[in-house]
């Protein structure tokens, strides 16, 4: 068996312990004689898995009791529509911090159901910065403000320590946290709603985490499909219909792994260390360069460039021959992108920097 260091932006690398445990429990989950995939979602055994998964997430993120945790399907893309369908409840106006491709998609969906206001945009810098935003100038009647905490494609982040998200007093802040949930410590109380696809830091594709303040549930209009109404899922504890059972189970294993690593603080410290190793190399290099400047830098997704497409191809091929895969940059940025999610070990980043340094010695 050969494992590679997988720098994919998502779906992405998982902790090996989780994969081993899932493999071990595949044929016979704890004496049930079946895998979690084969169980009734109404069975006691699956209900226990679901409850443990929620409990671990609440524990990790210190989620207060007046927030509900939902495990849904449809990915962050479904949340782009579900958020306006449920949160447009008074003015039918929402504000957006436009920081890249994901916010653009969230805006496009919300616009179908109400008015969207771009409160700040970093489009003029090619989304390589975080745009300044003055919350005191914002329309106080907005139904919500939407932010993408970590911009997976462009590599910027509202880092809770270095560049915290703006605060909008009484307006609920909605966060797409798909690519840095559980990687950095945000205060759940600062948000009305947090959503995240699981396939980056919380397990496998097929499950979407929604953390929603209770007072924001129950406002969907009569024409909103039941499946797109948060109340449906809150009332049924995420079991209105068949939930993404196996993805919930895997997320539970990942949450348990994060807890055993020391929780979000320990992950964050490790993530800062990993990212610093790569950024320090990039900042000192005469050949490679980072596309984003501090303090807007993401710890999770680090785009970087070489001067010329030929060098990109040569580097990507060399990296792959060394077992470093999925480093090709997103087509809208080009070059390379290293995604250093929680499950990427330090050894993977050390190896990457070693291969980059060696490449620079021969091509610099
Ligand atoms: C990956 C990603 C998405 C897309 O999520 P899906 O699960 O494919 O719907 C949306 N937003 C952000 C910030 C992402 O990183």
TrEMBL record:
<dbReference type="InterPro" id="IPR022278">
    <property type="entry name" value="Pser_aminoTfrase"/>
</dbReference>
<keyword id="KW-0663">Pyridoxal phosphate</keyword>
<dbReference type="InterPro" id="IPR015424">
    <property type="entry name" value="PyrdxlP-dep_Trfase"/>
</dbReference>
<keyword id="KW-0664">Pyridoxine biosynthesis</keyword>
<keyword id="KW-0032">Aminotransferase</keyword>
<dbReference type="Pfam" id="PF00266">
    <property type="entry name" value="Aminotran_5"/>
</dbReference>
<keyword id="KW-0028">Amino-acid biosynthesis</keyword>
<feature type="binding site">
    <location>
        <begin position="241"/>
        <end position="242"/>
    </location>
    <ligand>
        <name>pyridoxal 5'-phosphate</name>
    </ligand>
</feature>
<comment type="similarity">
    <text>Belongs to the class-V pyridoxal-phosphate-dependent aminotransferase family. SerC subfamily.</text>
</comment>
<dbReference type="InterPro" id="IPR015421">
    <property type="entry name" value="PyrdxlP-dep_Trfase_major"/>
</dbReference>
<dbReference type="InterPro" id="IPR020578">
    <property type="entry name" value="Aminotrans_V_PyrdxlP_BS"/>
</dbReference>
<comment type="pathway">
    <text>Amino-acid biosynthesis; L-serine biosynthesis; L-serine from 3-phospho-D-glycerate: step 2/3.</text>
</comment>
<feature type="binding site">
    <location>
        <position position="199"/>
    </location>
    <ligand>
        <name>pyridoxal 5'-phosphate</name>
    </ligand>
</feature>
<dbReference type="GO" id="GO:0005737">
    <property type="term" value="C:cytoplasm"/>
</dbReference>
<dbReference type="GO" id="GO:0008615">
    <property type="term" value="P:pyridoxine biosynthetic process"/>
</dbReference>
<keyword id="KW-0808">Transferase</keyword>
<comment type="subunit">
    <text>Homodimer.</text>
</comment>
<comment type="pathway">
    <text>Cofactor biosynthesis; pyridoxine 5'-phosphate biosynthesis; pyridoxine 5'-phosphate from D-erythrose 4-phosphate: step 3/5.</text>
</comment>
<keyword id="KW-0718">Serine biosynthesis</keyword>
<dbReference type="GO" id="GO:0006564">
    <property type="term" value="P:L-serine biosynthetic process"/>
</dbReference>
<feature type="binding site">
    <location>
        <position position="152"/>
    </location>
    <ligand>
        <name>pyridoxal 5'-phosphate</name>
    </ligand>
</feature>
<comment type="function">
    <text>Catalyzes the reversible conversion of 3-phosphohydroxypyruvate to phosphoserine and of 3-hydroxy-2-oxo-4-phosphonooxybutanoate to phosphohydroxythreonine.</text>
</comment>
<dbReference type="GO" id="GO:0030170">
    <property type="term" value="F:pyridoxal phosphate binding"/>
</dbReference>
<dbReference type="GO" id="GO:0004648">
    <property type="term" value="F:O-phospho-L-serine:2-oxoglutarate aminotransferase activity"/>
</dbReference>
<keyword id="KW-0963">Cytoplasm</keyword>
<dbReference type="InterPro" id="IPR000192">
    <property type="entry name" value="Aminotrans_V_dom"/>
</dbReference>
<dbReference type="InterPro" id="IPR015422">
    <property type="entry name" value="PyrdxlP-dep_Trfase_small"/>
</dbReference>
<feature type="modified residue" description="N6-(pyridoxal phosphate)lysine">
    <location>
        <position position="200"/>
    </location>
</feature>
<feature type="binding site">
    <location>
        <position position="102"/>
    </location>
    <ligand>
        <name>pyridoxal 5'-phosphate</name>
    </ligand>
</feature>
<protein>
    <recommendedName>
        <fullName>Phosphoserine aminotransferase</fullName>
        <ecNumber>2.6.1.52</ecNumber>
    </recommendedName>
</protein>
<feature type="binding site">
    <location>
        <position position="176"/>
    </location>
    <ligand>
        <name>pyridoxal 5'-phosphate</name>
    </ligand>
</feature>
<feature type="domain" description="Aminotransferase class V">
    <location>
        <begin position="4"/>
        <end position="352"/>
    </location>
</feature>
<feature type="binding site">
    <location>
        <position position="42"/>
    </location>
    <ligand>
        <name>L-glutamate</name>
    </ligand>
</feature>
């Amino acid at each position: 068996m050969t494992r590679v260091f997988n720098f994919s932006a998502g779906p992405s690398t998982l902790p090996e312990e989780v994969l081993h445990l899932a493999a071990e429990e595949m044929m016979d989950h704890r004496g049930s004689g079946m895998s979690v995939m084969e169980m009734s979602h109404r069975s006691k055994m699956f209900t226990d898995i679901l409850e443990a998964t929620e409990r671990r997430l609440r524990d990790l993120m210190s989620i207060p009791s007046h927030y509900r945790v939902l495990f849904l399907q449809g990915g962050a893309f479904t949340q782009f529509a579900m958020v306006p369908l449920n949160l447009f409840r008074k003015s039918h106006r929402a504000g957006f911090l436009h920081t890249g491709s994901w916010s653009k998609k969230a805006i496009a969906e919300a616009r179908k159901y109400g008015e969207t206001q771009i409160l700040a945009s970093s489009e003029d810098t090619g989304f390589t910065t975080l745009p300044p935003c003055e919350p005191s100038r914002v329309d106080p009647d907005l139904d919500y403000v939407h932010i993408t905490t970590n911009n997976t494609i462009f590599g910027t982040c509202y880092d809770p320590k270095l560049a915290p998200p703006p605060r909008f007093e009484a307006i609920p802040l909605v966060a797409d946290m798909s690519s840095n949930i559980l990687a950095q410590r945000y205060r759940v109380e600062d948000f009305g709603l947090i959503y995240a696809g699981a396939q980056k830091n919380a397990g496998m594709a097929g499950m979407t985490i929604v953390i929603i303040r209770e007072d924001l549930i129950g406002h969907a209009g009569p024409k909103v499909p039941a499946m797109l109404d948060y109340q449906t899922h809150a009332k049924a504890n995420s079991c209105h219909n068949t939930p993404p059972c196996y993805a919930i189970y895997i997320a539970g294993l990942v949450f348990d792994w994060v807890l055993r690593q020391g929780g979000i603080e320990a992950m964050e410290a490790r993530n800062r260390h990993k990212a610093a190793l790569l950024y320090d190399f990039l900042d000192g290099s005469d050949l490679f360069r980072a596309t984003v400047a501090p303090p807007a830098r993401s710890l999770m997704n680090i785009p970087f460039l070489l001067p010329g497409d030929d060098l990109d191809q040569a580097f990507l091929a060399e990296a792959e021959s060394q077992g470093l895969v999925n480093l090709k940059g997103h087509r809208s940025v080009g070059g390379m992108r290293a995604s250093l999610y929680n499950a990427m070990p330090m050894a993977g980043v050390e190896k990457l920097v070693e291969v980059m340094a060696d490449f620079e010695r021969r091509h610099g």
